[in-house]
Amino acid sequence: xxxSILISASLAALLMVCACTQKDKGPKQVVIATLDPGHFxxxxxxxxxxxxxxKDVYVYSNPGEDLQEHLAKIEAYNTRAENPTSWNEIIYTxxxxxxxxxxxxxxxxxxxxxxxxxxxxxxKKTLAAGINVLADKPMAINPENFEVLKECFKIANEKNVLxxxxxxxxxxxxxxxxxxxxxxxxxxxxxxxGTPENPGITMESVHHFYKEVSGKPNxxxxxxxxVEQQGEAIVDVTTHLVDLVQWQCFPGQxxxxxxxxxxxxxxxxxxxTLAQFKASTGLDAFPEFLMKDVKDGVLQVYQNGEINYxxxxxxxxxxxxxxxxxxxGGGDTHYCEMRGTKANITIRQGAEQNWKPELYIDAVNPxxxxxxxxxxxxxxxxxxxxxxxxxxxxDGAWHVFVPDSYRNGHExxxxxxxxxxxxxxxxGKLPDWEQPDMxxxxxxxxxxxxxxxxx
Length: 455
Hints:
With 455 residues, the chain is α/β, with parallel strands linked by helices. The longest helix has 23 residues, at 2-24. It contains 14 helices and 18 strands.
């Protein structure tokens, strides 16, 4: 009996030593493989350095302009004057790049941002090999992709690896504060369910084909303009908007496709002249695969889409628009109105706001004492976000002042998403709601795609 007790005590001590040793090792080391980088978002993941990520990054791709553009951005990060990175890109090129990445076994995290038609299959094969995936949106651009994506999540669970998409907009400060304010009953009241004609939440995102990234003109691959490869706006940019509806209105809740009802969906084109196409791609002519979309010498791209739907009875409307180029001094914009029983909370980002997202609170028939309750609640919020201020602009209307120190920009948000992913990687799991909510999100966008396309 004494011998058994001694053995048990020794075993317990050994386990404690092992646990402490593992803890002392710190976060698990991450080695990244970048697969087929055809979109600048792949590079933005590496705009920031991370202590637990190896400086050696393995790149697997076909040769060509997409790869060269990616490597040029990484080199620019490595050689910039302020906070340079020190990535060592180890490159393999060839038609078997996916198989080579898997057989090499160098990486435990695959990052992909590029041709969206191929992306879902890349994800599936990578997960089957036991490699974690951090993927740019969208992970599915049509109903067939969505069925494969559902298989991907099953494989991830079986292999005990993570599949996570890059939702940068959750890290924009006015969006964060809009969500925080909507969770304070003294300010917002309760969420209005709304109607299809007057939704409880409305979002609109405007993007531009010709833009600068990291201070240089962004050259887009020609396939970006083929909705069969890139995906329509209704399954691309709306991924962010549908995600925000879920994240802002149902924080931490496990959602299901059965919670979704599409009430209407539509899509329409943005015209692109050959001169505009050349400026954004560097090509002198439309390639053959785009000729199906060229009418009278103008490329017609289905990069505008609108989804009206209900989520757990909440009426939501999301719209994604693409123009060729932003107005002078402007850029991509985001609009969001959340309607509560006590106040509407709105993000606006137009010329009046100097193209910066600004947050407003508009009381709905404020009762006596509402302003005092608003200020008291806002004072508590300010403790979490020092420097924000409440500025009264009219009776029952306020502007939320946000210091520039919080406005780190869209490109920086990729680093913030990656840091979250690395935390989940170290913990070995996502929050319980993330995976079912990703499935619900892509169900929403691909169902809307079917309706818009008359399927």
